[in-house]
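Inputs:
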Amino acid sequence: MRRYIAKRLLHSLVVVWIVATVVFAVVRAIPGDPVQLMLGGDATQEAREQLRTQLGLDEPIYVQYARWMGRLAQGDLGESLSTGVPVLELLIQVGQPTVSIGLLGMLIALSIAIPAGLISALHQYEWDDYVATFIAFLGISMPGFWVGILLIVFISQRFEFLPAFGYVGPGEGIRAWFSHIILPAIAVGVPYGGIIMRMMRSSMLEVMNEDYMRTARAKGLSPQLIVMKHAFQNALIPVVTIAGILLGTLLGGVVAVEIVFGIQGLGRLLINSVHQRDFPVVQGSIVIIAVIFVLTNLLVDLLYTVLNPKIKYGDGGES
Amino acid sequence: MSNPMLEIENLHVEFETEDESVQAVDGISFEIHPGEVYGIVGESGSGKSVTALSIMALLDSNANVTADRVRFDGTDLLSKTDSEMRSIRGGEISMIFQDPMNSLNPVITVGEQIAEVVRHHGDVNESTNLVQEMRRKYVTGTSADSASWRRAVELLETVGIPDPETRAQEYPHQLSGGMRQRVMIAQALAGDPSLILADEPTTALDVSIEAQILNQLLDLRDEFGVSVLLITHDLGVVRETCDRVAVMYAGELMEKAAVEELFEDPQHPYTRGLMQSIPRLTDDREMLDVIEGSVPNLAAKPPGCPFQDRCAWAFEACTQPLEEHEVDPGHDVACHLHREDIPEELGEWNSPTAVRTDGGDDR
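Outputs:
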């Protein structure tokens, strides 16, 4: 198991390196010059050259690449071209709201969607199944930022309940923090939860038709026990896969939702830095997102071993 | 003779679909005595499994089960409530299914799958409420010191699984096919049943394992005195294991007899057809004899005998409702050829070498 994790982490490193290289190339391939954008059109050629040297942009591309890689290997993401603030510091600043919203959104979505999918499957074609299915499809069809706008209009504006704008860190009071992230979290959670609910429903329906469910009934177990002990864990296995894969989509949803709610998050930082051609910030943000991705995937795979005894990541290979 | 353990009289099972209704079981009657191994043999789709599932009340809600009588150990099963049926299922009547890979839960240890039956139907005095069961499943695991677990290990040993303490901790995918079926048997024994319904218990296994499993079943019958209803499509299995047997075709029982009698003196053209299609070591036949045609559509069965379209000896009377003829004590045949008034030219049908000479179906 330990060896498996080590191997996976090594793979992850390779993936992150590839992402970093591609990002490095792409940000330099898009037209636009950071120096020009920083100094404006009126600056003299001399001033531009000076700033360029100062920022190290006059050196050949491979030198820039090697320098960036060298610092990355030490965990140093460099400094912003425009403000000189270390990228890591920027990321920690904006990462807090993004991660809070993402995690809370996922938590809300899972804790509603999984029970709803379960009940829906058990009451297939009854009124509660129709209601749950209708809501799930509604959720799937609405992008998070649109849900966010609806929440602002109908909850914040109409009832003057919960703030519609900005972010407050947990350091300034848990209540204030929570009240600022709950609406954006719901907004990102709705489309995510809709898909999870549908997955849970179909997975549960499939499991209920398995031969071992008939065996469980033939043992004279109560219907509740049959569902919770014999079906639930089996039904959860494919749902975890989807929940893990969709985390990426969820993160993408957060970026859009942050803008609707006027929150300075990772999304806004990324967009602004692309506009300014602030290479180190773009590169750093993308690398961090890649790291989050790779680690959640690893986490999901490890969760499998808990849910599915057939999967063992031992030293003897995978079965 | 002792009272039967199971008495079935005129059992019908009908499946309702949107545009048709299918008679999967069409008026069958049989009884099983204590300690007896009773076989039901038939082709796929003849209604064998449905019969077993209807006894356990395990069919889906689109199945309509009616019978003049389904009595188990003197009590009427048809009038039982859901919760009364639950205490019988797995307890007094248990079931072994065909495919042991898919019939065992992949995420529960085999020990626990047996132990839960012990807790529900045995007298181990361990709580089986939902909260306790959930705690066992998801938090603590089943204690290896609990009486139910010890019983489960004992049962694994009884069915011939080596190193049962270790095996009990394993999951179904870690066991071989034969071992899994032994686990199924241990699970079926765990509630101390008086009747086991074994639905094709060896079909998914290879031949040498099949023999071991069948012997195991017979040993357990001798040891615990349970009755067994053995459902199979394999006449060889019937011959090796059963005391009495019923031949099922298209939801109806064609012939019922003691096993030796059925093999020595089959009295139904369908049973004969089945016997002739068994390969023999002494065969010099190039091709095996087959029964021409195929099983009738159960949603639109012809009136009368379901076998009439494939039967070489069919005549006018075959479209009339079937009745059972007792050709010998304990040997019943549902075939119009056993009537007194069959056409003269068919009189020869019962000799072993008979070939129909009047040109076949003259209806």
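Remarks. The longest strand of chain A covers residues 313-314. Residues 91-275 of chain A form a domain with the MetI-like fold fold (CATH 1.10.3720.10).
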